[in-house]
Amino acid sequence: MLRGRRSPHFHPDRDPLPLHAEILCGGNVRSCQGMTSRSKKLVYALLSSLVFTACTKTPADNPSAGSSVQMMELNKDLKSVYIDDAYRNTYEIFPYSFCDTDGDGIGDLKGIISKLDYIQDMGFTALWLTPVHPSGTYHKYDVDDYYAIDPQFGTMEDYETLIEECGKRNIRVIMDLVLNHTSTDNEWFQKAHEYLKELPPDWEPSVDYCKYFDYYNFTREAKEGWAPLSDTNWYYEARFWDGMPDLNLNSSFVRQEITDIMKFWLDKGVSGFRLDAVTSFYTGDPDQNTEFLRWLVSTGKSLKKDCYFVGEAWTGRDEIAKYYESGIDSLFNFPFADQSGILCNVMRGSFGAEDYVNAQIKADQVYRERNSSYVDAPFYTNHDMGRSAGYYALDEGPVTKMAYALSILMSGNTYVYYGEELGMKGSGRDENKRAPMYWSTDASSEGMCRGPEGMDEIKMKFPSFEEQKTDDLSMWNYFRQALKIRNAFPSIARGEITLYDECSDEELAVFAKDDGVHEPVLLVINVTDQTETADLSSLGEFTKLSAVLNTSEEKIVYDHGTMTMPPFSIAVLTGE
Ligand SMILES: [Ca+2]
Ligand SMILES: [Ca+2]
């Protein structure tokens, strides 16, 4: 086993984390002018068995204990730089479970408004709310009426207040736009159904009599993915569930309706749209999906010049790249997300620190080729994924924290799912992934929601917000520091990456980010549970340790060009 690196077969849900044996003996300093990382690793492998027992340090021996002090002190004076562009820190809220204000146990818009100071204080600059339109389900991805607000969540006035209050805080609001399907309870579907019920069996339907017939895909043949329409001999396309009929996106009536919907909400002040289920628009036909996106994006931008679109294409990098040809601003960067994605694999040791950087460089190249003004949309988890604290069963915090920082420090518009800043848990059935925001351990305290029906009882791993907010070492505080750093150095969100591969390897990576406008930064990341060192003296431009993200008791030390990086730590260097 390589020094400081877990076995590639390490499984955090199964295997204990190796002991934090800090090896501080000399001979293992990376140098940007020194050996190649390959040959260094051989030396590490030989050294490790010799020095492992000889120079283990305990935190008590460490004169620099108190890394949280370093993090709080060093980051204290960082100033947020606000830039009015699409590079945002977006907080994803599942309204049903976020904050309840009227005591019915269901989160509401007034609840979100009451937490805007919390959201702003965390460092977020945009909100994405999952659907808020009337719907029979708690998740509301089957929309009954695109021009209204679900009474469970509040009123149109509440939504307008939300947008206004967000505006005061420079927070943009992104609306979830579900265009692949509606609910069967949507008036459009009901009218089409009525019409087909009354149509004599041997007659052909005509849009001259009922335009709603054209809104959906109907056929008289039974097919897979199509559901029978009751009291008729017709079937309708319903790929997800027979309560969600697929819209006919070729219909000029539907396209007019979509245009009207976008205009309606843009006029109310939303900044853009998150597009649900992009790959299902035309199932199995990426070309048509891209063409539809091209129409949608150009229509939206003709209504409002900077109307922002982010698409959910849950697929691999090269197919995501194809959708960028449509001119869409952003597509969620799925390959980095979830339990099977790059971020989790880095923390589990099956993907290296330099691989994490190289994967970003490669993705940037592939996406930029298709859309030179694209804005990446990195994220780690969302409402369809198990929460990240559950990915590392035996972790006591450092791994969960560091993984999120690796996501937050990526270029683009970063997305964070509510509750992840507390390390909430929830996996398995979808309801569990949408558990009540853990404001307090007392389920009856102010704002607490009851959560979706059918949700299992979830035992949280980390404390509630009430307890975490006063603890400098908490998950919440770490998260806040990560967003603070992102807000203080615009090159982190906007910069292009240069990897210093001579001093990067599986354990540690050194890379610069520069957007050509703001101060360039150098990031040093140690993704292992061991202390790692690197000689950065040849990188003359970056001489000042300007911000840190620590997870262990040890401080990050930058001394005469030598960087000493404790386990799971991140350093930001700038010029003087
Ligand atoms: Ca409520
Ligand atoms: Ca479809």
List keywords for this structure.
seven-stranded parallel β-sheet; Immunoglobulin-like; TIM Barrel; binds calcium ion; 15 helices; 576 residues
Protein architecture, described:
With 576 residues, the protein is of the alpha/beta class. The protein folds into three domains: 22-78 and 497-574, Golgi alpha-mannosidase II (Immunoglobulin-like); 89-179 and 263-488, TIM Barrel, CATH 3.20.20; 187-237, no CATH class. Helix content is 29%, strand content 15%. It is built from 15 helices and 21 strands. It has helices spanning 37-54, 67-75, 109-114, 116-122, 156-168, 187-198, 252-268, 286-303, 317-324, 342-348, 353-370, 398-408, 465-468, 475-488, 490-494, and strands at residues 22-23, 29-31, 56-57, 89-93, 126-129, 172-177, 218-219, 226-228, 235-237, 272-275, 308-311, 330-331, 414-417, 496-499, 508-514, 521-526, 532-535, 544-549, 557-559, 562-565, 569-574. The strands form five sheets. The protein has a seven-stranded parallel sheet, with helices on one face. It is globular and about 85 Å long. Residues 100-102, 104, 106, 108 line the site of one calcium ion.
